[in-house]
Input
Amino acid sequence: MSLYQLQRAMYDFLNPTGRARVISMDPTTLREHFVLTDEELEAYIKADVRALYLLGVHPVLLNSFARARVPRDQYRAALASLEAEQATAP
Amino acid sequence: MAQLVAAFCASHAPLITAAPETAEPDRKDRLYAGMAELRRELEAARPTALVLCSNEHFSNFFLDNFPPFCIGIADQHQGPVEDWIRVPASSVPGHRALGTWLLEQSYQQDFDLSFSEELYLDHGMMTMVHMLLPNLDVPVVPIIQNCAVKPMPTLRRCYQLGAFLRHAIEHWPADERIVLMGAGGISHWVGMPGMGRVNDDFDHWFLGLMSEGRAELALTLHDDEIERAGNGAHEIRSWLTIAGAMGPRPGRVLAYEPIPEWVTGMGILTYDLAAMHAA
Output
């Protein structure tokens, strides 16, 4: 797990042009700049809100990333699904 | 000396500009009416600068360097960072002389603000600038606060920051009229299960303290108590900064609406500084 690197990639994606180290959805390019597990790489590329949350991404960073990449309804549905799971967890 | 001519607080949900139509119409209209009143008060104050305190959303700082407070001292600030909030990309005028004065005074007063010549303004500030200063005709000195990543500055430290800001503004040897504003909160959940909930009991309690001039009572809140109103409720730090500048002076709530569609308890509060200066 390389949470710091995953969050760094997300932060760079959100930064205004010129400040980021890399903005790419290409796995090879991403791996040249960040140390990411397969799971983290896939979650980043797909902007998988559920996976990113469960990987431990900071919620405020996740929110900014999701707002930029995921349709609003899809984003809210992903969080609602997580809430429902938490409510029924033993 | 410079004069503090107005002080405000407001919630700053990005959807206030990105998706206003999603809110229940009556709630949206009442909230917008409050914002219009705030704009009238701002214009009536004839400010020469706005000191705007808001929180960091990973728009400027990452975990390699995350300061508790950072003041922008540049001549211009770019914003918004987000291209989806329906606010035009702008170059917002800064106020180097005021920013530098506050920075230098912070060191004299043992506050040690971080500073930047390249702060990017996100929705936290740009929604306010867009709605209150659409002509970009008043320079802005941004102060970014850490209200997201633990450990955060304590509520008391934010309150003390406000007291410092007022003292420094009122001792600035310049013929300027300064407005102080905090933008953030109140209850909301950000990027986590619960997003879309609003804790209006917390919001009314907090607004009650602010409007009674008793915000100091909120300074002992623990993180878990704040988080009953969501992780975004940590942004009350920006409100408490303004409360620190005002001390026991009561505020006046211009609007409060719980708007789940904007995922935020939306509040607007002002202080009657005309009476203070007349006294």
